[in-house]
Amino acid sequence: MTTRMISKKRSCVSGRLGLTAGIAGVAMVAAVVTAPTARALDQSRYDRAQLQRDADAITSTGATSVLAEVNSSSRRLVARSGVADLKTRRAVPWGAYCRIGSTTKTFVATVALQLVGEGKLKLTDTVEQWLPGLMSSTDIDGGDITIRQLLGHTSGLPDYADDVPLEQATTPEAFRNERFRTYRPEQLVAMAMRHKRVFAPGTGWSYSNTNYILIGMILEKSPATPGSRRSTSALSSHST
Q: What is the DSSP letter of 124?
């Protein structure tokens, strides 16, 4: 049995090329930061001063904080900008952690495929087999949706994300009211079930967070190790 260790959080800066901004800056990282790729870094004159300049460029757009790291085979550059706390003006911790968002899906898929390889799941298994009675919709049948389709976003399931109140927040007050609200996986699936399917299972492709909530729930039901069940429980939850 392969040991599976999955954490819901990871360092904001990891891997060969890592750049993460705080709050409002997350979506701007790719557009604003012009750091070279890890391979190009070895052959360039890009240095920490330039990385600091790029991090500062992100906070200048209104981001609360930025923690950035660029790794290559021969060099490691780190920089931070902004503050971790607006009241105390405390600096961003070098070892800060952040939510990994949809990167979670990579880890969930890895565990699922490990279990397939061990013969504890089949890609042809259906949602109804593992989660009987969970899905109730006029045109959605869990018996028609396979694990393969969940993994590849070909299930045709609607995305619950559009119904999460935080996604509808248009004022600072609404955001503050909803930002820490959490939901059980069953609640998120129920949100998705309010809508009709996007297409018949296996006949198209549409990105849906609902797919991976269901995979997480299936992993909890699978004959995995106790440690795996605890890990996937966290992964199958949604926190705003």
A: T
Residue 123 has pLDDT above 60, yes or no: yes
Token representation of residue 66: 């930025």
Catalytic residue positions? Answer: 102
CA distance 182 to 163: 13
Between CA 203 and CA 198 the distance in angstroms is 10
The length of the chain is 240
Q: What is the pTM of this model?
A: 0.66
Tokens of 129: 């087999």
- The Cα 150–Cα 218 span in angstroms is 11
The dihedrals phi and psi of 5, each to the nearest 5 degrees, come to -125, 115
180 compared with 201, residue with greater pLDDT: 201
- pLDDT band at 1; cut points 50, 70, 90: very low
122 pLDDT band, cuts 50/70/90, is very high
pLDDT band at residue 36 under the 50/70/90 scheme? low
Q: Which of 189, 188, 169 is nearest to 179 (CA)?
A: 169
Can you read off the two tokens belonging to residue 102? 């949809």
Token pair in block for residue 22: 């705080």
Tell me the one-letter amino acid at 12.
C
* Cα separations in angstroms, 149 against 19, 123, 143, 146: 31, 8, 12, 5
Q: Is the pLDDT of residue 23 over 60?
A: no
Spatial CB neighbours of 54, under 8 Å, sequence gap ≥ 6 = 32, 33, 34, 35, 68, 79
| Residue 163, helix vs strand vs coil | helix
User: Which residues, including other chains, have CB under 8 Å from residue 214's CB and lie 6 or more apart?
Assistant: 127, 131, 150, 157, 189
